[in-house]
Each structure stands twice: as structure tokens, then as C-alpha cells.
Amino acid sequence: MSIKKADLVVLGGGPGGYAASMRASKSGLTTIVVEKDNLGGVCLNCGCIPTKTLYHVARTLDDIKKAVTLGIDVSSPKLDFKKAMARKDRIIEMQRRALESNFKKNNIELIKGIGEITARGKVSVRTSDGQEIKIETKNIIIATGSSAFIAEPFDLSEDGIMDNTKLLSLEQVPESLLIIGGGVIGIEAANIFSSFGSSVTVIEILPRILSVEDEEISKIIFNILKHKGVDIFTDSKIESFKKNGSRFICTSCSGDKLTADKILMAVGRKPNSEGIGIENVGINLSKNGYIKVDSHLETNVEGIYAVGDVIGGFQLAHVASEEGKIAAENILGKVKEISYDVIPWTVFTALEIGAVGLNEKQARKKNIKICTGIFPFSSSGKAYITGETEGFVKIISNSETGEIVGAQMIGPRASNLIHEVAVAMKGELLIDDLASTVHSHPTFSEAVMEAAEDCVGIATYK
């Protein structure tokens, strides 16, 4: 057994953990990161990066199929799934190596193993090779993330039932895929694998898919996926299933019989708050097992902080990174608070989705008198050039003050365009400022300006 000393121990090497460790180490703190698996967390290894890599393949396939409308005659494209998956694995490996290199450059010690808080300021690590390391530390940041929630009657031990990790380890495209859950993970997977040739079915217990998104956006994605051949059942759930050979036969609550070669569980995430010793120091949890923190991201135990999926809220990689940085700043004595008012997020499905702040329904619930500006891509010259005229940009502002309170968009480059509105909101610009900012023509970003102009009734091309 060896004993180490540090200013900070971070449990977890995902976006929240590595961002916190980088900020702390660059500011002079002796930092140790404990990670039981690979650096990068869910995002890099079985989430954002690999799924968006496969999304790019699916999007390219779809674009090639539509190339004839641009006057380009190409033969029917054929997916080499093994090559696509191998490329995905190479990208993950390159990103891991880059993280490991940054750790070395910034003198961050990485210990591979399972860490447990044994007392305030004390962490015990059981390494992958069976050694035990004791660490005495001034501060601890818990960044252990989350894992897939598996709903009844399903069980991951059953061959063919998958979470996001198993999905990304497939060796061939399933002939048929049943997706349980119509949220972001489920709908992104439905889009990817329908483009790859799978017969896809989605079961969603709520009245609509992508329930946290703008209702109009949800409806557009529903219709596009249906057009791609995806069967979608809302207000539904699977009550039971049985296996016939390698195929699953599932019965829904309405009595529908659904068959599939593979089943993907995409019904949400659960916090990885067990097995890390929080009971040894009395850290408070919510009823769902999330770690409770204050606005400084500190738990009820002095010197112990928590960030990322393990605290709930926005379960997004970029939010975890920001929380990690703020927790590190507070450990350094800078007294910073986390604000979730301007958090952009994106969804990569049949069309890209971008959102920030409040939507119309949320703004009205807050009794804000709103003005809504909408610009459809069907009125965009750039969209006609590229053949991407579906979707719109919607901006919501306070009609009394001109404050921008939110935006939702769906269509070409929405994942990038949303940040123009996010920067305006963060900088406390008014809707008039956004509307009067000259935008280059012809570009997709003009749609943001036009939506802002429409908010005050002066849109040029609508």
C-alpha cells in the first residue's frame, strides 16, 4: 500500500472531472484524477463523440442519396459498417491520447482504479492491478457521471438488449431495431440506424417524442422520421417480451405485437453515486440518488464538491465541463456561482436542433410578455442553394424590455447557429441589437437576423 498527498482529488475523468483538474492544476494545485475506465467519460467513449461520428456517416449517406437533386448523378452508396465503426474507434482513441497528453503536460496524476471517500480529506483507490493507494487531500470533486437506466421488463444481461455502450459495439447493422424511449438518445439512434438500413421502431411513454423540445420542432422530427420509415408509438410502453430464437417479440400496453432483432434502452440516465463512499462522510442525496450541491457546487460536507451528471440538472458534457471549472475556481478561493440561464444544447437527428433559454410555453408560465420572431429556412437563399429548406429559427424576447429570453431552431447548421443567440443573451444584448447586426449574404446565419427582425415586425425576406 502506498500513500499520496494532494491538494485536490477528482473522482472521474469525464468532461466535468478533466475540466476541473485542468483548471486546478494550471492554477498550481497538486491534482490527482482517479478513473476506473478510460479518460473522457461517457461523452468521449460511448456518447457524444462516437454517436456524432456515426451521425456524420448517416448524414453523408443521406446527402449522397439526395445529390441527384443538385444535378450530380452518383451510383447508389453502400455502407461499410465495419469501416465506419473502425473509424469511430480511431477517433475515440485519438481523443483519449490527446487527453492523456494534456494530463502529462499539466502535471496531473492519473490513477486507474476505483476510488472511495473513506473520510473527509481521505480517498482510497483500488487500482486495476489490485493495489491499494491511500490519498490524503485538502479537497475532493466527485465527477462520477451517470449510466443508462434500464426499465422493466428489460435486463441488460439478456443477449440483444443494449444500452448506449453496447449499441456502439455492434458488429453489424441490425435488420430491425426497437428503441425504448423517444428522447434525445433514442431519436438520434433512430435517425442513424434508419439511414444505415435498419427497420426502426420507437416506443415513447409520453404523448410526443423529444418532449423537452419546442412542440413544433418535435412534430417536424416526428414527420421526417416517419417519412424515413421509422415506426413511432407515443403514449405507449412495452409490458412484456419473449424471445423466439434470436428475435424479440414484445407486447405493448395497447396490445401491439412488435418484433426486433435488437432492443436499445434509451429511457434516461441514473447517477453513479453508489460505491464511492458518500455514506462515509454523510453527503446528502436527492430521492433519485443525485448528489445535492449549492450554487458553488459544494456538497453539505465542506471541501467536497460534485459536478456533472451525478448532480442531475442539465446532463450535458459542456455543462459538466463548466461546473468542473467553477468548482475548481471555488476551491482556489475565487467564490463563483453556477448559472444555468444561458445553456445552449443541440440534437443531431434528421435535422439539427439547437435551443437556448426559454421556449414560448416556459416564458408564458413565467408571466413574461413575449414577442416571437420566426424565420423559415424556406425563405433563405442559402438554404435553396444547398437544398436544405426545411426548418426554422425562432427567437423569443420580452416585448416590454427587448431582452432575449430564448431561441429554438431546427434545420441546417442549427447546432452552430444557436450559439449566436447564446452569445447575445450572455452579453445582455437586446433583440434590436441582434436585428440590427449586419449579416453576410448568402448565409444560414441571416436566418437569425431575420428572426430577430421579425420579432419587431421588420423582417426583410419573410
Chart the SSEs and their pairings:
Blueprint: E1 2-11, H1 15-26, E2 31-35, H2 41-46, H3 48-65, H4 81-105, E3 109-119, E4 122-127, E5 132-142, E6 146-148, E7 161-162, H5 164-167, E8 176-180, H6 184-195, E9 199-203, H7 215-227, E10 231-233, E11 238-244, E12 247-252, E13 257-260, E14 262-265, E15 269-271, H8 278-281, E16 304-306, H9 317-331, E17 345-348, E18 352-357, H10 360-365, E19 370-376, H11 381-386, E20 392-398, E21 404-410, H12 414-426, H13 431-435, H14 446-455
Parallel strand pairs: 1-2, 1-5, 2-3, 5-16, 7-14, 8-9, 8-14, 9-10
Antiparallel strand pairs: 3-4, 4-5, 6-15, 11-12, 12-13, 17-18, 18-21, 19-20, 20-21
Q: Name the overall outline.
A: globular
| Total DSSP E strands | 21
Tell me about the biggest sheet? 5 strands, mixed, barrel
Total of DSSP H or I helical runs spanning 4+ residues: 14
The chain-level mean pLDDT equals: 96
Helix percent reads 25-40%
| Structural class determined from secondary elements | alpha/beta
Q: Please, what is the CATH homologous superfamily of the largest domain?
A: FAD/NAD(P)-binding domain
CATH class of the largest domain: Alpha Beta
The structural domain count equals 3
Report the CATH architecture of the largest domain. 3-Layer(bba) Sandwich
Numbering strands along the chain, what is their spatial order in the largest sheet? Answer: 1-2-3-4-5
What amount of the residues lies in strands? 25-35%
Low-confidence stretches: none
Q: What is the name of the CATH topology of the largest domain?
A: FAD/NAD(P)-binding domain
What integer value in Å does the Rg equal? 24 Å
* Euclidean distance between termini CA atoms: 71 Å
